[in-house]
Every structure is written in C-alpha cells, then in structure tokens.
Amino acid sequence: MFKFKKAFIIGLVIGSLGFASLSTAGNFVQNITVNTKPITLKENGVEIQHDSINPKNSMYYNGRTWVPSAMIYEGTTYVPIRVVAESFGKDVVWESKTRSISFNDAHTVPRPTTKKIPVFVEGMTDMREAKLKNGNLNYDMYVLNNFSLEAEEPFRDVLLSNFDSSFFVRIEVLDQKVNMTNYKNDLKNSLDGKVHDLNPNQIFDSFFHNADFYLLQEAKNGNVNVSITHLVRDYGTKKLKFTIHIPAKEAAEGIGPSFWAMLKTIETK
Predict the structure, then answer these.
(1) Which of 74, 171, 175, 245 is 20 to 30 A off residue 238, Cα-Cα?
(2) pTM of the predicted structure, to 2 decimals
C-alpha cells in the first residue's frame, strides 16, 4: 500500500466523474490509502504496452518520477491517462492555464524532439536522454546519445553504437502479406551456427511478446562469439524485421538493453 495526496492523483490518473465534485471543496488535499498491486491492461485481449512502463515492476515514469502504473481506491481503478489515450491512438496535451486535458488524433501534436526513455539494465531502470530521429523507411524513433541511425542500403537502416560499431541493429521493412512461417523457415535454413527458435514470451520486455517470431543465432566473428537476434514485429502500418548483433564483449551489458529500449519507441508513418 502507498499513501498519496489526492491532488497528485488527479494530475496523474483518469478516474470517474466523481472528481468533478472536488472543485467545489475547500480542501483539495487529503491523505488516502490505495492498493498498488500491479494489474495488466489489455485491449481486445492483447496486453497494452507503453515505453514508460517498466515491465519488471509495472512502475510508470510520468516524466519526473516513477509511480504505480495502476491503483485501486474505494473500488475504482485508476491508471495514467497518457497510457490509456496513447494506446487508443490519441495524443495528450495538458493545458495548465485552463487546467484542462486535450485528446488529439495521433500526430496532430508532434512528438517532442528530445525525451528520456527507460533503459532496463541488470534489474535497474535508468532514464536516458534520447533524440527523435527519422528513419529512411518512413518511421521515426528515439535514439540515445552515443548511438546513430543511418541508411545502410535501399530498404535497410542500421542502428549502431558509436563506441563500437560491431554492436548494431539492422532494420528492414517486410511485406505485410508475407507468409511468416515460410519466411522464418527460409531464414533459419540460411543462417550459420546454432539457431534457437524461441517463444517471443521469453524476451525480457513484454513489448516484444507479440512478435511474429524470435530466433537466436550463435555465431562467431573471428574469435569473438556473437549473439544475433532475428525478430519480426508488427508496428501497425509496417512489419519490421530486426537483426540485433551483440558481440560477447563487456559493453554488451549496457548496449544490448539500449537497443531494445530504442526499438520500443518506433512509430511508423
């Protein structure tokens, strides 16, 4: 259980119309006790993902601090208004002068050019500054400092570490009508080394659990072992394939999670 000030909750969550009655009260602040046991948010049976929710503990980063992603008070469940709105294709704008919240069709409000995104490293969450970059395949994403997003060749982009370019992610757009079973089998047969055909639910971040497939390839680059992940995920208007190269080097502990964090922020056009 956590105790919060109601004034804080009003700014954070969406609730019942009962909050309207608070505007006539003289005291807007009181201590309440809420149940913050994690719950799962779903849309048509599919778990809702959001890049500001830590999949390990279900905490939500509201731009300033970590708070519960859901809470129950007196039989009513409250969740962050931004999570709900963005999950249904709406952008949220808080207008402080009028104390009002606007819901706009997605992309009518431009994405901020810089943003802190959560990177999950060794069980800890680190909020890191990232810049909005346009890919060459009609999408944009937030790219962390010390990483670059470049066009590699027609129909391919590459996201790479500026410290060590042997760490990189190749990004490709697939035809939405491709037979995914045949595509995966053809890919498996073309790969060298040992290839593991894994359940996407084994990926540490639930955002990728609805991937079309998840292959993990054990390869070598000279004397260095390389883990190569082959993953396809639907981003709405586009189906993207990621090939994530992670050499067995010390830097892998930080660079690998950074790649996953950036790929979560992709929005297609």
Answers:
(1) 245
(2) 0.68
